[in-house]
Design brief:
With 658 residues, the protein is of the alpha+beta class. The chain has 5 domains: 204 residues, no CATH class; 91 residues, no CATH class; 99 residues, no CATH class; 134 residues, no CATH class; 96 residues, Replication modulator SeqA, C-terminal DNA-binding domain (Up-down Bundle). The chain has 28 helices and 14 strands. A 6-stranded mixed sheet has the order 1-6-3-4-2-5, sandwiched between helices. Strand 9 and strand 10 form a beta hairpin. Helix 9 runs parallel beside helix 12 and helix 20 crosses helix 25. The chain starts with a strand and ends with a strand. About 1% of the residues have low confidence.
Amino acid sequence: MKANETSFNQIINSEGLQYVVPLFQRPYSWEKENWQTLMEDLDHLYAHDNPRLSHFIGSMVTIPVEIAPHNISKFLLIDGQQRLTTIFILLMVISDLAHQQENSSLAARIKETYLINRFESGDEYFKLLPTQTDKPIFQELVKHGNSNQQGHRLLACYEFFKTKISKKYDLESLFNTVTSRLSIVRIVLAPEDDPHLVFESLNAKGRQLTEADLIRNYFFMKIATQDHDDIYTRYWAPMQDALKENLTEFIRHYLMRDGLWIKRDHVYMMLKAQLDGKQHAEVLEKLDHIYRYAGYYYRLLNPTAESSPAIQYYIKRLNRMKTTTAYPFLLDCYHDYTIGQLSESDFLEILWVIENYIMRRHVCNVPTNQLNKIFPALYLQASRYDRFVDGVKIELQKKRYPTDQTFRDQLMTADLYGGGDRSERLRIILESLEQHASGKEILRMDDLGWSIEHIMPQTLSPWWENHLGADWEEIHEVWLHTLGNLTLTEDNSELSNAPFPNKQQLFLESRAHLNGYFANQSAWQQAEIEARGRELADQVLQIWSYFGDNTVKQEKVTGQKPTCVVILGEEIVVSSWRDVMRKTLNTILLIEPEKFDALILDFENYISYDVNRFPRHEQFGSRYYFQKNNNAASIKKFCERITRAVGWSEEDWYVEIE
């Protein structure tokens, strides 16, 4: 390695020279504030005639490229692309303005000495060769001083300096200032140095690149230079254009297909480990494979690109349910479907199985933190069975797949309405029930503009309090967000918290088949909510029917008695639902004591400072009391709500039952 401080005159004033920006580099990214800083530095130098006064603007790292005899001298520009490209643009501006001012001598001297190799052709005609993204407009600017590609950052840079320089400077003096008085440290690596390792080191100290940037870097450092343009055009550019910001996540999911769990910031290192020591042909084979799978990933992200309407339908639903953890598994399934190894009907069944598995676990509040380990390994596990689809079902059944009894019980009592993904998954449940009621296989429910409606409203009016009876607070608390109290309607704003008879009339005028249920209802109280919940739960069991084999042993034997509550990863043994409440409250009080007084106000029907607040109570902590006569459903609801209130997720708090 050689390093020395020098001027731009010494760096680019040479015939038969070219700096090549490697494909792994980002496109030109300097903006107005960077250009303004450079212009201010030039102003300072320009205003002082002392030729010894110079300004240091950083460093550039290059490595010579092995070339055939008599070709131009090429250097890979490993670091310093932004500075060098900006200086080239600045020199273009000075040359073009000199030409306009009829100073043809200066214009020609700059262009022929600093910007081009006048005896060369093709790409070698240019002394700087930017990345594929920037190359066309850069070459247009060198040749013509303008470009048709409006809005490009290189053109904005050109226009910025043209505006700044036009009338203020003597062009000859400014040219000398740029080429002779801006200093830079040039570091030239030896040909045997590994530019990839140097780039990694530079990146670790400077502005961080994305994992996709580093991956592109590594691929093209493993591919022969003469193949860069062809490989970039054939493989990398189409993937980058199609997947955009999802490119890194795609490669992560692609690498996870073998059953590995890969963190988002370890994608590059994992790919590098797979390619280290591989020959050129093996690297190209890997890139070709990734490229093909990128096409499948694009269809997962954009289902309308899939030609089968039925497959489109199920992928859209999975995306609405945010089931990206299944993508590593689905990539291999998509490949098998594309090459004819998996029939369309089998692929559709697999998509339904995944939706079924995710939906049942969601309703039963099974934590999602294991899904990113379950799905990457699923393809290899299922491949061991005679029929792949059967293998998928059997393997998923082993991994906390809720039985019909548990699913049905939760459908009737669980809070299905809520923030985040909950409302969208609830909408899918209600849409599926509407399809079931209408007898239509597929409905474009998202085009109808329907919204989720609470029949017993979220805010109770005096009419509703009187209608629900003496226990209206508890009924509202327990049954508000359950399936029996929810429907779809196009009249949500009109319904609000209107009395039930008013709502009933609007329901009967609704296009939704679901709302025909209310024709024969004379009241809407706890008994009616429970009855409708039972009926809808039975229908949901038909939509997402149990796909398992009763002879296969489950990881968890489900039932109704709690055995332990898992809080922040710690398993705490419990003997009853009251014990769940007791230990949950004590843990919150221990971990989040500063939040507890605010919780008293939000959950005054369950916890209090006042010993006389509840007829039957139990003390916890030094000065708090909770109500003892709550039923299991009420306790579970309360615990779920209070743990969300302190910021815990479904993975942070859940109950194991037997």
